[in-house]
């Protein structure tokens, strides 16, 4: 191959790797928010689609005219520790109600949408939504910001304009929720019922490695461990991780896929961009001295809030220490750094990596 041919091949592999990581960070990537990223994915569509299909069993829809790319990250392991940023059950309910209304009325004012969501919550016998209450207004505003970030809604000073196509792409599940009775049915993937076991081994292992901050051996099945221990399985994993522009770190306790450019990272830790992350670092230091009860961690957080009265003002009210400790602990659990069992919190082995970075 000529020098130019080598350069073109290297450029393609680099762009494919970047496209894979962009979709891992933002499974619904809209051209309006990242035109350069979308253009790259559009140009390298075929190899990116093939990478996700072969290594993870995930579909990628790229719609140039509609201006979006959607990675459908199906899983049989729904993770409650990783909601949309800042979302809780209340916000998810409002999100579903707002989307249902926006599908039938694509141009509407914010006040009119809030009124329709209020009526829908009442009609569906859901917890009441009252736009006159500050907490409800904040939750509703955050839902609208989320929809705008996904490219599902555009707003001006008075009106919202919804994109029904992107709204329907928000949900990533093998089956429609209206057709199933349980979460197990919602996440069931029929393709693996008749497929060879090696296909499920490959996809399930790569999904864990690519999507989870850290994968512990104790959390893998015997079949998955056997796949990772085999020469064929190990080669597949290393090749797939490398094609995505990442590296695989293996330790006695488990595995960690590292993106040196942090492109695939939807949230970073350690980071001081939120009070919860600062608190999480404090709690991690406390757990380095040994297991602690949740009450111990609340007390540790209370001392922090008392020492710095002008910091984390949203948590300075009654019960703030408990909320901040819970938010910090949720982050540690989401990043695979701590685990709570029967009220006792223990640090997990991956936390040692952060000690190394800190030192």
Any overview of this molecule?
The protein is α+β, with helices and mostly antiparallel strands. The chain is built from 15 helices and twelve strands. It has helices at 3-25, 35-43, 45-56, 89-104, 110-123, 134-149, 164-169, 183-186, 197-211, 222-229, 231-243, 275-287, 294-307, 320-334, 351-358, and strands at 28-30, 59-63, 68-72, 107-109, 153-155, 159-162, 215-216, 247-250, 254-258, 292-293, 338-341, 344-347. The strands form four sheets. A three-stranded antiparallel β-sheet has the order 1-3-2, covered by helices on one side. A three-stranded antiparallel β-sheet has the order 4-6-5. A hairpin with a 3-residue loop joins β5 and β6.
Structural class: alpha+beta
The span between the termini is 46 Å
Number of helices: 15
Please indicate the count of domains: 4
Shape: globular
- Looking at the overall shape, the CATH architecture of the largest domain is Orthogonal Bundle
What is the CATH C-level name of the largest domain? Mainly Alpha
Radius of gyration: 22 Å
**Chain-averaged pLDDT:** 88
Order of helices and strands: HEHHEEHEHHEEHHHEHHEEHEHHEEH
Poorly predicted spans: none
Walk across the major sheet and give the strand order: 1-3-2
Number of strands: 12
Query: Which topology of the largest domain does CATH recognise?
Result: Arc Repressor Mutant, subunit A
Q: By CATH's scheme, which homologous superfamily of the largest domain applies?
A: Winged helix-like DNA-binding domain superfamily/Winged helix DNA-binding domain
The main β sheet shows up as:
3 strands, antiparallel
How much helicity do the residues have?
A: 40-55%
Report strand %: 5-15%
């Amino acid at each position: 191959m000529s020098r130019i041919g080598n350069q073109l091949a290297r450029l393609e592999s680099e762009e494919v790797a970047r496209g894979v990581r962009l979709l891992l960070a933002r499974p619904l990537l809209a051209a309006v928010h990242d035109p350069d990223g979308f253009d790259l994915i559009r140009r390298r569509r075929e190899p990116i689609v093939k990478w996700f299909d072969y290594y993870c069993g995930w579909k990628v829809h790229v719609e140039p005219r509609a201006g979006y790319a959607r990675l459908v990250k199906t899983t049989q392991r729904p993770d409650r520790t990783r909601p949309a940023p800042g979302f809780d059950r209340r916000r998810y309910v409002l999100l579903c109600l707002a989307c249902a209304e926006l599908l039938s009325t694509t141009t509407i004012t914010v006040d009119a949408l809030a009124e329709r969501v209020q009526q829908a919550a009442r009609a569906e016998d859901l917890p009441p939504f009252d736009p006159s209450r500050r907490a409800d207004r904040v939750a509703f505003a955050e839902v609208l910001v989320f929809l705008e970030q996904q490219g599902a809604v555009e707003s001006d000073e008075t009106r919202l304009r919804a994109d029904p196509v992107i709204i329907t792409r928000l949900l990533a599940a093998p089956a429609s929720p209206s057709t199933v009775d349980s979460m197990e049915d919602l996440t069931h993937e029929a393709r693996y019922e008749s497929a060879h076991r090696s296909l499920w081994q490959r996809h399930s292992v790569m999904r864990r490695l690519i999507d989870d901050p850290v994968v512990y051996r104790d959390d893998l099945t015997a079949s998955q461990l056997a796949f990772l221990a085999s020469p064929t399985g190990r080669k597949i994993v290393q090749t797939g991780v490398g094609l995505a522009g990442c590296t695989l770190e293996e330790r006695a306790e488990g595995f960690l896929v590292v993106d040196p450019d942090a492109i695939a990272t939807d949230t970073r830790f350690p980071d001081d961009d939120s009070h919860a992350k600062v608190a999480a670092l404090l709690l991690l230091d406390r757990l380095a001295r040994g297991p602690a009860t949740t009450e111990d961690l609340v007390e540790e957080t209370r001392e922090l809030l008392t020492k710095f009265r002008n910091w984390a003002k949203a948590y300075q009210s009654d019960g703030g220490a408990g909320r901040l400790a819970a938010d910090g602990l949720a982050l540690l659990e989401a990043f695979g750094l701590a685990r709570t069992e029967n009220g006792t919190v223990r640090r997990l082995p991956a936390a040692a990596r952060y000690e190394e970075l800190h030192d």
